[in-house]
């Protein structure tokens, strides 16, 4: 049996995407998402943010890079990768999501019009079927509310 490594995230960009190229010319778009979750503290629900680094390789990353601006809501599908290195004699590591699919879910704050385009590593960015599927995807989701059915504070 094979292990499963799949991640799906929807959040807002914390900074504009940076497009870089490897020595061999491979494009990589790098950005970070803020993902909010509700946490109950002292009988009050509060939002708590997690900040996740994303790498989107190839032509998909190159195509979507100019649309990935701070505040833009996006959905990312990919897998977790642990980067390891040594710094000042200390072993360091960081978890990064390597994206295989990125969807623009809406507009960045202050922008008009409708969002909703999909970009994938495995499909050309001009795939009309993928783009049409993603249009309006965020408006079809019901709002999520925290469930408070437990007497004790379970951290998960």
Main sheet summary:
5 strands, mixed, barrel
Q: For the record, what CATH class applies?
A: Mainly Beta
Percent helix: under 10%
Mean pLDDT: 78
- Counting DSSP H or I runs of 4 or more residues, the number of helices is 2
Q: What is the count of distinct domains? A: 1
Strands of the biggest beta sheet: in what spatial order? 1-3-4-6-5
How many beta-strand segments?
A: 7
Poorly predicted tracts of residues: 122-152
Instruction: Give the amount of beta strand, in percent.
Output: over 45%
| Radius of gyration from CA coordinates | 18 Å
Task: Find the CATH topology.
Answer: OB fold (Dihydrolipoamide Acetyltransferase, E2P)
CATH architecture: Beta Barrel
Nutshell version of this structure?
The chain is mostly beta strands.
Please tell me about this protein's structure.
With 156 residues, the protein is mainly β. It has a single domain, classed as Beta Barrel (OB fold (Dihydrolipoamide Acetyltransferase, E2P)). The protein contains two helices and seven strands; from the N terminus they run E-E-E-E-H-E-E-E-H. It has a five-stranded mixed barrel. About 20% of the residues have low confidence.
Please render the helix and strand layout as text.
Elements: E1 7-13, E2 18-21, E3 27-41, E4 44-57, H1 58-64, E5 73-87, E6 90-104, E7 118-120, H2 128-134
Parallel strand pairs: 4-6
Antiparallel strand pairs: 1-3, 1-5, 2-3, 3-4, 5-6, 6-7
Question: Keywords, please?
Answer:
2 helices, globular, single chain, mainly beta, five-stranded mixed beta barrel, OB fold (Dihydrolipoamide Acetyltransferase, E2P), 7 strands, 156 residues
